[in-house]
Amino acid sequence: AMFRVIVSHAKKHPSLIPLFVIIGSGGVGAALYVMRLAVFNPDVSWDKKNNPEPWNKLAPNDQYKFYSVNVDYSKLKKDRPDF
């Protein structure tokens, strides 16, 4: 129903099409980023029975941030004890 309203507005006012595209792509990008956080972030544990603490299994050179400015994770060495 909402998509039909958007299409009818776009037919009446073609100058709204870039607005709909930009807002739509922003929403899709936000949804994909939240999905990425839910799947790949070490703070999230989906399987509490087999892996209750996934953050303990990270190696020092695992990059889990989306974008790191000044850190090259491949050159990091282990600086913490094993538990």
Automatic annotation (TrEMBL):
**Localization (cell):** Mitochondrion inner membrane
Molecular function terms from GO: protein-containing complex binding
Q: Which Pfam families does the protein's record reference?
A: B12D
* Topology versus the membrane: Single-pass membrane protein
Q: Which UniProt keywords apply?
A: Electron transport, Membrane, Mitochondrion, Mitochondrion inner membrane, Respiratory chain, Transmembrane, Transmembrane helix, Transport
What does UniProt give as GO cellular component?
A: mitochondrial inner membrane; respiratory chain complex IV
- InterPro entries in the record: B12D (IPR010530)
Q: Which residues cross the membrane?
A: 16-39
Please, which domain of life does this record's source organism belong to?
Eukaryota
Similarity comment text for this entry: Belongs to the complex IV NDUFA4 subunit family.
Full protein name: Cytochrome c oxidase subunit NDUFA4
- Organism, as annotated: Coturnix japonica (Japanese quail)
